[in-house]
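anyone else get weird line breaks when pasting these?? whatever heres mine. first is seq + tokens for prot A
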Amino acid sequence: MLTKLSLKNQIDDLIEGFRDYHRRQGTVRLADLRRNYDMLVLKVLSLLQDSDPALARDIVKSRTAIWNILEDSRKFTEANLMAGATP
């Protein structure tokens, strides 16, 4: 349970970082967001690899597509991530 809560908080922090980046607020850099994204994906994959290998494979396959949504202002906004809504 604590692991799930920790992951949720890390995901929320990452999404908030992208909101700041797309709003041009603060000093957040895309390279830092990429590093945080990659580390978070690796953490999720390490947790899933034994318990749900199919989901882990799907995440690996979707990794670039997810990143492309996060880094593109238009796609990020269209996915309702800018306002804090979840698609």
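and prot B, same format (seq, then tokens)
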Amino acid sequence: MRNSTKSKMRIKDLFVITIVFAGSIFLASTATKAQGVGMKLFIKPASKEGGFKMDGYFLWCPSVIKVDDTYHLFFSRWPESVGMGGWTTWSECVRATSKDLFGPYKFEEVVLQKRDSSFWDKARVHNVKILKIGSKFVLYYISTKMNTGYAYSDKITGPWKRIDKPAMHVTNPAILVKPDNSIYVIGRGETPEKVNIATAFTAPSFDGTYSILKEGKNVLPNDYELEDPTIWWANNQYNILVNDWKAKATGVSKSGAQYYSKDGINYTLMSKESVFTKTVEFDDHTSETFSRRERPFVYLNDKNEVIALFSTCLPQNGPARIIIQPVDNYYPKN
């Protein structure tokens, strides 16, 4: 009788454990579905031999476009000799090329530098973003704080024509070109109290008037803050990946936070889990934790799937370089 009773208790306990375990899986699955499937699990190790670095320079703000069979990497750089803070005075736009999206890339030319004090872009050329809009190549960039403008050209190699005044009062611009060549922009704005917020703009064309949306109020939920957005269109929605300023969204300061929006005015956090952190894994089974990791940029295939994540990585010692991680054909589901 005792053995029989013990057996029944073991079976009962096993049954309860199974139900609890199954319930945990169900709850985890439900939570994942509720939050959406973020990009984190789709990101692969970076190639140690890929990406791009330049002796004697800090590299920042990667942005990539493919023209024919060549990838053109536009980015900001400034001399290592002037230190990390030298970007405020010495940042310039540079172009490098590769036949392989993941590199290595080869330096080609300095594209744009700051102009003299009579121009709006007198301070620096920074936060560069390259796009093809209609028949033109358009290069957005910032100069003085909260001032974004652009230059445009018929060819990826220039020459570039710059506008005479800023197009928008925003920094860290991320630009989306719609099928009709109208423009949507999301970037980092700032409140009078110096709080970073996400502000959005639209324009009928790249050279049209940029109108601010939502009266300039934060388009992120819960007063979340941001830096360095990158944007893409997939699943009939706007998708952005940002640096989580002040860790309000993920709990990890300046890690990757992902949001989506159906209208471009109200965004929803995809998941509380960080898409990326300061640690990067490499294809030789090593990893490196950087002192800073910023300026994410996603590259899409013709199905609007993310296939590469570019970011700027500043090591514990030495100047920053650009690292590229493959992404396993990520398409947002929420």
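btw re prot B: The domain at 57-330 is CATH 2.115.10.20 (Tachylectin-2; Chain A). The first helix runs from residue 2 to 35.
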